[in-house]
Amino acid sequence: MATKYGGYMGKVLLIDLLKKESREYPFSDEERELYIGGKMMAAKILKDNLTGKEKPFSDDNLLVITTGPLTGSGAPSSSRFNISTLSPQTGYLTSSNCGGNFGYYLKKAGLDALILKGHLERPTWIEINNDQIVFHEADDIWGMKTTEVQTAIDDKLRLKNGRVRKNGKICIGPAGENQVLYSCIVSNDRVSGRGGTGAIMGYMKIKAIAVSGNKEVKVVNKEKMVKLTKKWFKYLRKHPLTGSQLPKLGTAGLVSAMQMKSILATKNYKYGQYEDFEAVNGETLAKEYNIVNKGCLTCPIKCARTVSVEGKIVKGPELETLVLLGSGILNNDLKAILKWNYELDELGMDTISTANTISYAMEANEKGLWDNGLEFKKTDNLSKVFEDIAYKRGIGEELALGSKRLSEKYGGKEFAIHAKGMELAAYEPRKAVGLGLGYAVSNRGGCHLNGGYLVILEGLGLAINPTTYHGKADLTMLFQDLMEMISASGQCLFTSYAFFPSPLMNHPNSWYTRLANKVLPYCGFAVRLINKYPRIAHLHLPVFHHTKAFEYVTGMKMKFGDYVRCGERGYNLEREVNRLFGVNANKDALPKRLVECLQDAADDSSKVPLDKLKKIYYHARSWDENGLPKAKLLRKLKIGE
Amino acid sequence: MKVKKLPFIDKENCAGCRVCVENCPTDSLAIEDPKYHGDIHTIAYLKNESTCIGCAICAKVCPIEAIEMKGG
């Protein structure tokens, strides 16, 4: 439906795979105002189409690929797109965000979102070029790994002059084809990793989608946006996190800080420190293996890096992969991690869930629960194990189920490190309990980002008391809502790192940083005031450029308070989708290891006080004791009307 | 004879966001290689003047208007 707003192309396309037909899916300007784009738009579409009876692998599930209004607008780090669906891993909604250029080209094809429903009889790849949609047989590319298939499709899109038509692609590897529960969708060398979106695409028998076009994103106030973008680029390039740490070391730069703060997931989250951490940290990676840093389209931060694997220049590992395939399984061979990272991307498998499933299996074997041949420190056979998972061969067929299901079969639920069925990220939360809360309540399962990423205050940016419960629930809510909105707008969450004033980052031992660390946990009242009445923040914050950019691109009014409120709506909307599928307070859980066992026997506070945190969090969110949004809140947020 | 205009990039402001490179129909633009590890001051440049057709798409799509077309 045509739109009066800038930033949007005004069209959501639904492809019915069973009929091989497409039609425009109605999405009005009123809905754009409320549900913005990205994961929020996707949640709205899922909420309107699911009843709670659908299964992930069924023709009733939808794969919803969305952009945000800032995608393709030229705003910094704004090439992102989102994929939401009913997750085969959790049975709840998952949303998975990805860089690369697919989102950018979706907009150039004139689409804000693409919805896929049903399945095809034969392997297929779909070509979208402006308004034209073509279904191509994919027998010749089915079975290919992710780089090979993208190269093959580029060849198919070659023009008469020999050049490849400019396009953005998504694809799956063998793991997605075989519906491994944690398989992912790959775009260039970026990955929509979490929640098993690749398995749903595999169920649909879609090997790849290539989009291209020549449409333009309208920016309502171009002059002001150009000025702001110029200033924003400079700001990001000067900030210590986005202009120095991330470009130099990438996310891998956090390993050493995690070790220092005892939050480095080690031996399947039994410990928070690893004696050989220096062998697998960001500094060693940068010194020994990195070739160059590089960025996604439109991004000045350039946090990605390339490494050499078997003579090929490929993407280097992110923090999660480095930790979970390093300290997580007691492996100090960094070169092996680079190879596995490449292999897993080629197979199209989420590195986080793969690594955590392996570390669960190693511990189950060590404890005599499951004789599977996997052992901590013994890593010479892992490349074969990964292949076996992707092709569901031998032991791989079981490992393809993930740690939750395996622990239900073999025992050891207390050390199956997942939330709602999705394995946790690389931060051991007993010394960062705010993040522990985030993992537990996160809508998509054990995710640090969807969980609010409070660890940035608990040791990785600032250093507030990591084990106190004070202030954590309110801050978690605020951060979740802010990140919800950044993501829905189409921007990378790393742009929010620059929200933290540079002096605090540059001078961690200064009196003002120490004061901030002391005071922040007791600012719950102020944070709750913003959470409850976001409109009191009816202004643009000088260090938060996102709101102004949103206004200049779309023409909608969006002050900081409105931004927080929109994010809150999105978070609750996803919770409402999950309510249909039975989510409640009991499902906001962590394994016993993290909530009952002390990480440090001498420190009574070194576990996640989850019940206490959840109670405060539910109250802050105006959810009932069962962890569900109250009717009054839903009315206030205009959800379900 | 009509003289082809070529893109001139404002080195001071270009953030190397790659939008111009992605949109160049003749692949005539590129981003500089990093000069050191962690270098974020890599900017766009005209790598092949002979293939540039002077279409000015790069100047049009640059989000900070850092590209100007100038007579050849």
CATH architectural label of the largest domain in chain A:
Orthogonal Bundle
Biggest sheet details of chain B: 2 strands, antiparallel
Indicate the percent of residues in helices of chain B.
10-25%
Strand and helix order of chain B: EHEEHE
Low-confidence residue ranges of chain A: none
Topology-level CATH name of chain B: Alpha-Beta Plaits
Mean pLDDT across every amino acid position of chain A: 95
What do we call the CATH topology of the largest domain in chain A?
A: Aldehyde Ferredoxin Oxidoreductase Protein, subunit A, domain 3
Strand order, biggest sheet of chain B?
Answer: 1-4
Total beta-strand segments of chain A: 17
Give the CATH level 1 class of the largest domain in chain A. Answer: Mainly Alpha
Oligomer: heterodimer
Quick gist of this model?
Chain A is an alpha+beta fold. Helices cover 39% and strands 13% of the residues of chain A.
Sequence-ordered SSE layout with sheet pairings:
The complex is a heterodimer of chains A (641) and B (72).
Chain A lengths: L11 E5 L4 E5 L3 H7 L2 H12 L12 E6 L13 E6 L6 E6 L3 H7 L4 E5 L6 E6 L2 E6 L8 H11 L11 E4 L2 H4 L7 E3 L2 E3 L4 H7 L2 E7 L9 H17 L1 H10 L5 H6 L21 H8 E5 L9 E6 L2 E4 L3 H6 L9 H14 L3 H16 L15 H9 L4 H5 L3 H8 L7 E2 L2 E2 L9 H9 L30 H18 L12 H5 L4 H9 L4 H9 L13 H9 L5 H21 L11 H4 L14 H11 L10 H6 L5
Parallel strand pairs in A: 1-6, 7-12
Antiparallel strand pairs in A: 1-2, 3-4, 3-6, 4-5, 7-8, 9-12, 10-11, 13-14, 14-15, 16-17
Helix pairs in contact in A: 2-18, 2-23, 7-8, 7-22, 12-14, 13-16, 17-18, 18-21, 18-23, 18-25
Chain B lengths: L4 E5 L9 H5 L5 E3 L12 E3 L10 H5 L5 E5 L1
Antiparallel strand pairs in B: 1-4, 2-3
